[in-house]
Write a structure and sequence with these properties.
8-stranded parallel β-barrel; single chain; TIM Barrel; 332 residues; globular; 38% helix; alpha/beta; binds NADP nicotinamide-adenine-dinucleotide phosphate; two-stranded antiparallel sheet
């Protein structure tokens, strides 16, 4: 049977999703964004990918996070997104905030990795083609390149904006000093850095201690957390072993991350989640969103059910001091 033409739910902006301003900017992002790193490649089922994106949009998720090499295979996350755009979302393009990135390994040879102008310029052109888009809302430098002069990378970002291929620019995983330089370089050329994207979850709190999140906040740059569920560790997936269909079983996350210490921590955290009437995934997202410096959390999801559960997590983001102390004790 041919799938019926998608028609989003009318109450999608009145369905529980909340929106936060991205630093000092005109952009509001949903507290939950949907990421395409895994689960949307050509190894995954298109019908499932389509269902997840439609479900997300129906629940107020307007922000979709991609990168040139998401898949597997490289590029196929964007291709899937492009097919989804064509099939269901062309009439809704202006309601969507779509990102892509370049900076990691993408194609062979000296021009398909890191931060050269050559790589970024070619990559954005490829990404737009794969995604069936005329422009992305934000283009990120995916990682700091310690060898290429930072000015070269940043100027390429600026020129991509000037060419109309991206509306905003962002940085991902930049060390603090490089981020400081970049924020100023961009601002001096009237291109504000809209978002910083960094790993932040209950098991990885580096950006708190190294000051990255506060630095972004001070600069008026929003902060989006990637891997907010530590790739699934902060969910019920691994409380009792390794499920057959999980990211670890599929070889997308190394088994060594699931140490006895991690299992002890997630079991302890799960006890608190149960008392709060939340799943571990819900509590883990709520814990991030209790902080006003976090603009959005980018979740991955292998099913609509997971996405549904993650959306529920934003309903209660208030923690008692006692709960926070208990969480800190478990994690220490
Ligand atoms: N800037 C960067 O360098 C960078 C790096 C990494 C990620 N990202 C972005 O961040 C996004 C999210 O990263 P991530 O996929 O690692 O995020 P994540 O949300 O921490 O992990 C997603 C995985 O957690 C499991 N899961 C999610 N919700 C669940 C629920 N409610 N109950 C049980 N299990 C649940 C699923 O595992 P199973 O597959 O096992 O079911 C899912 O694949 C990426 O798609 C990408 O857009 C950016």
């Amino acid at each position: 049977m041919i799938n019926p033409i998608y028609s989003p739910t009318e109450n999608r902006y009145d369905n529980g999703m909340k929106y936060r301003r991205s630093g000092k900017s005109g952009i509001l992002l949903p507290e939950i964004s949907l990421g395409f790193w895994h689960n949307f490649g050509d190894v995954d089922t298109f019908a499932n990918s389509l269902k997840k994106v439609e479900f997300a949009f129906d629940h107020g998720i307007t922000s979709f996070d991609l990168a040139n090499n998401y898949g597997p295979s490289y590029g196929s996350g964007e291709e899937t997104f492009g097919q989804i755009m064509k099939k269901s979302f062309m009439p809704y393009r202006d309601e969507m905030f779509i990102s892509t990135k370049a900076g990691h390994d993408m194609w062979p040879g000296p021009y398909g990795d890191w931060g050269s102008r050559k790589y970024l310029m070619s990559s954005i052109n490829q990404s737009l083609k794969r995604m069936n888009l005329e422009y992305v809302d934000i283009f990120y430098s995916h990682r700091f390149d310690p060898v290429t002069p930072l000015e070269e990378t940043l100027q390429a970002l600026i020129d991509i904006v000037h060419q109309g291929k991206a509306l905003y620019v962002g940085l991902s995983k930049y060390p603090k000093e490089a981020a400081e330089f970049a924020y100023k370089y961009l601002a001096d050329r009237d291109v504000h850095c809209l978002l910083y994207q960094g790993r932040y979850n209950l098991l990885d709190r580096d950006i708190e201690t190294n000051g990255i999140i506060r630095q972004a906040y001070k600069n008026g740059t929003g902060f989006v957390s990637f891997s907010p569920l530590a790739q699934g560790l902060l969910t019920d997936r691994y409380l009792n072993g390794i499920p057959q269909d999980s990211r670890i079983a599929r070889g997308l996350l190394t088994k060594t991350t699931l140490t006895d210490e991690v299992v002890k921590k997630i079991k302890g955290l799960n006890e608190i989640a149960i008392r709060r009437g939340q799943s571990l995934a819900e509590m883990s997202l709520a814990w991030l969103l209790k902080d006003e410096m976090v603009t959005s959390v980018i979740v991955g999801a292998s099913s609509v059910e997971q996405l549904q559960n993650n959306i529920t997590g934003i309903q209660n983001t208030t923690f008692t001091q006692e709960e926070l102390n208990e969480i800190n004790k478990i994690l220490s």
